[in-house]
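Problem: given the chain below (159 residues), write out its structure.
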Amino acid sequence: MLKSSLLLAALLLPVCAANADDYKAGDLLVSDPWSQELPPNAPTVAAYFVIHNQGDKPDRLLSVDTPVAAKAELHEHVMQGDLMKMQLVPSVAVPAGGDLTFAPMAYHVMLLGLKDRSVLQDGKHFPLTLNFENAGPVNVQVSVQKVPPMAAHEHMHAQ
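Solution.
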């Protein structure tokens, strides 16, 4: 029993040593997936993250899935005249050797038809699968937070 426990601990050590908020598939690294806590009676919520393409070929985020919503859509915010609008996009390009940030008032994943509101509370996590054209599916755990992380604040002020 002790041998098997030690073996299991040795096998899990590299997993525990990695940053819990980084997920890798091929040349892509998805970091810091998060969502704001679901406000009372809100029909939708958004998820955010950063995609780092460490390779020399572009990729494309084709779709997103999660068991906590009936539908997950890729959206972006765009200025149309004096009005900021949110619109559905069919896919999002991830440049070679570059980063793509999903953040408030930028690209984001909109979760529609929420099935399990209990996991959308501060301190909880929920699964999200990002489906890429070349790298394939990447499964991440989205951290639900009462307020956005500092990285989101910095991104919003940088624009």
